[in-house]
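Aim 2 progress. For cyclic-guanylate-specific phosphodiesterase, the working sequence is reproduced below.
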Amino acid sequence: MGYDAGMIHPSHASEARRALGALALFGLFLLAILTLPGDKLGYSMDFYVPIHSIMEVLSVVVAGLIFAIGWSSSRHYGPRAVLVVSSLFLGIAILDLMHLLTLRSMPDFITPSTPQKAIDFWLAARTFAALALLAAVTLSWQKPALLPRSLLVGLVLVMVLPICVLLTFRPDWLPATYIQGQGLTSFKIAFEYALMAIHLTVAVLCLQYLRVPRVFNASALLAATGIIAMSEYLFTLYVNMTDFHNLLGHLFKIVAYVFLYEALFTETVEGPYQKLQESEQNLALTLDALPDLLFEIEESGTYVDFHASEPAKLAARPEQLRGRNIRDVMPAEAVDSILKAIIEAKQTGKSRGTRITLDVPEGHRHFGLSVARRDKPDGSHTYLILSRDVTETVEQEQAIALEAQLNAALLQIPDAAGELDEAAFLRHGLGIIEQLSGSPASFLCLTVRDDPASLACVWPHGSGIGAEEPMPASDACLHAIHGRKAVVIDTGIDRPAELGLPESCRGWRRALLLPILDGEQVRLLLAVGDKPQAYTEQDISILQVFGKSLWQSVLRRRLDGEVAKRQEQVNYFFDTNLELLCIGNLDGTLRRVNQGFKHLLGYTPDELEGRRFMEFVHPDDVDETERQLQNLAAGSDVVDVENRWRCRDGSYREIAWRSKSNGDLVFATGRDVTDSHRRDAELRRLSKAIEQSPNSLVITDTKARIEFVNPAFTDITGYTLPEVLGRNPRILKSGKTPASTYAEMWSRLSRGEPWQGELINRRKNGEEYTEMALIYPLRDAEGRITHYIAHKEDITERKASAERIQQLSHYDQLTGLPNRVLMEQRFRGVLEQMKRQKHPFCFMWLDLDNFKDVNDAIGHGLGDILLREVAQRLRGQLRDQDVLARQSGDDFTLVLPGMDQDAAAAAAADLLSVLQLPIDVGDTELLVSGSIGVAMYPNDGETLDALQMCAESAMYRVKQDGRNGFRFFAPDMQEQASRRLALTSALKHAMARGELHLVYQPQMSLKDGRLVGAEALLRWRSPQWGDVSPAEFVPLAESSGMIVPIGDWVLRTAAYQLKRWRDAGLPVETVAVNLSAVQFVQPGLAAAIAKQVTDIGLAPEHIELELTEAVALKNPEAARRIMDELSASGFRLSIDDFGTGYSSMNYLKRFAIDKLKIDKSFVDEIGVKGEDQAIVVAIIQMARSLGMSTIAEGVETQAQLDFLRDNGCDEIQGYHYSKPLDPERFEAFVRGAAAH
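Predicted structure tokens for this construct:
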């Protein structure tokens, strides 16, 4: 074929040789045919029809087999190329069959059979064959089909059916392919050449596949497509429908189909079968290489199959396993574990981690199991069990666990030794020994008096250490002791006495006796027994380590106990002595102190030992103490010294020390002499105290004869001790003290009880005074009264001060009326009386109208005179039982007992009438009025607070209605007052909680429609009240003083926002911010807000400050000065709501104002009221004449906008352009406006 065999990949070699040989053979055959004369091959053959029919039948059969093998393989393997090729060959089989049935030599099939009809079916079949071969080399032989096989076959049938209908009924619609007597048409020949071109393309692609590793049988496809191409060439040569060329073409076609069948068979049947065989061989080799055992068993435990590379690890002989149940060959414990693993695998598909222990021919082994469920086509299950020998792993784990157990046991010994007595400690050790050795029984023996033949035994469940027992020479224990090594008894112990073992050892299967040495001498003998397995060197090693540690702990306990006993004896004497005992060095360092220091001075021994004695001595006593210590060091036998020692609480106690030296040590005892010194000092102080006391002291005998008075008595009464000695205290009587006081005094004193009370007495000079006296009897040791002692204090001035305090604390100092405290007391009295009598009464709250303005106008001095006159007039209108009090400022409260609503109304009218009479204050005659709120008991409340609240609310309603009147309380007043109070309280926290925020309303130029600025408007969104109107909360902020910090926050927030906008490139020139009246008069306003703005990074000219007319006109001169400062700082100024106040051109000319804002109320009436339109025009003209600009707020309609533009207004803001927006929406509005 002219193709280099060296370019063929080795994986194709054998197949390629066969395919290329076939191509060469048929090629030579074709050349041979072409060399024969045409007249020899072009004649009509009589036997053509039967041979042709046989070959067509073979073609149909082979095509059907190709379809069948592809259809069958698609159930399991189903590569994309195989399914498409086999489906197309179904169509080829149908079309070849139709070709056979429509030959002229055959009976008519549906319509008359003609050469044209037969050739058309032939060409259709050949076209499908070319497409099938093209699909075979272009589609994947590895990826599954994209469509289901039934759908793909259906598509082929859908294509074949119309072709059959067309060629059967309307062959005349197609070009002629054969003309009787002339042969093939050029169309038919060209069509055949086109098919040859497709087959040659397929052949080239097959050659490319031969150069790479084998994916499919490209060699067979190469042979098939090459031979079909030769077949197609032969079909261009025949002249007669029954000549030799035609017959040879059919023969070539059948051979090509056979090669194609081979290719499909190789890939779909032979190839998978070979892979299966290889896989089984690999699996067998893998299983042979694995050291693990593999079993397949049923759910009941019956062996199905097994694989064992090491039969010595099987629980039974291999020939005995298959068909038997695991219960027959394994212990019950292992069977239960396996069945549990099978149940888990049945539920989850697998089970891992199960371990079993078996005695197999190889010995005692541990196996780890992995179980997997195997699902069978009939729905039943078997289970694959992989059994791995993990004996070494288990033994390593056991060794590690045993070592860990030993370490844990060694760590327990010190704690147990400290908590248990010796016998209990040894029993505790026996329990650990049994665990470490795996023995169910044990005992130990202690050697007594270093005699190895005398042992004292300890049993695990005894209550102490057994009595000493001598041991016979043949005793097994004695052998272990003398040999100093372990003795193992592996025979059963049926006669323990013969071995010198206790009777309790009878029945032990084996025993281990282990001596524990301390140096060369055996101290302990450990005995364990009855272990199921034999004792090993590992058991001996572990018990040896533990036993040594156990003995060391016993020894340490005994030594510690002896030392502790001796120490306890010393400590008992040292610590139970109540005096101070200490031992120190000659340099004064304390080495030991007793508990007396803690009881007396508060120091524990640990706090003192190691510190110097002098650290605790009072600084004034250090020198003397040091001198005595030096005497002791110089050889003095005993020294005595007193000093003050500092206690732990910082106080000092006086200690008398006696010290004695003994070599380098000093032994000292101390005795607390603080109390004795203190008693002496107290006696001296008591004498001084009595002499120096500012209060008089009188001592009399039981006959009331004076025996002693102190100097204070003389100072207070004027009588000296000689003048009163032996006399009765009645010489001081003034006659003002009630007789009942004296009667009570002597009644109590006669009963031996103290008496205290006030006496009004007379001094020697005749002046009366009041004294507080405490008189009590003085008893001797037998309890008899021997004297009376009187302590007396002159309280004359104190009583006068108390009366003055009473006046100051209960009365208003300006008007002399009761204050709020006294009002509350008297209200309680009225309330109790009215409750008893079941009568009503009224509570009034009176507030003078405009008193603040009057007070500012006439001055506070005259204002006080006015309040006193008002109080006098009100008092003159009341009854004796009525209560009038000054609440605060110009507020008065009244309680009028027994008055119903009609009487209360009449009383309120009388009070208002008397208030309205002219009042002369200095040189001024004033007319005042008041507003009275009235609350009725019990309808409006039953407490002072409730009635006050109701009356105050009613008074404020009078103020709202125009003042100078009275009103009874109604519930809606309280609701409004409560809301105002709650809003005020919530507003105090609103800024800190982030409830305040700003919105911005665009301000637009009427000249060019561009954005010129925005007004910052304050909003409050309360979690409790929702959105609160500025008209409601701003007055509350002003009245509560919160408007200043809120105003600062608004200015700062608006400036920050404008800075961000300008930094972002938005064309926003200014932001207008409102200044409240309270803010406006703050000292240093201009400098403060200019610093705020510049610190943010803005120039002041970008901030416009809006003021109301009322702010400007309240104090025009002060307002002008502040405005000048603001303007000089660079701020723009505007008058808000212009036109609603005085709107005076006079003040406008003097103020540094840049802009007038036309109030919304005038804008709303544009087009409605002519006078309001005229006011708008006048404002615009006035501003223009003064060089100011104008802005109208509240513009909502086009008509309003047109009117303002036509009359020369400069700027507007309002809903016509935009409502107030949050910063993000305002930014979007600005960007949208800039885009237009």
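The two ends are 79 Å apart (CA to CA). This observation will guide construct design in the next reporting period.
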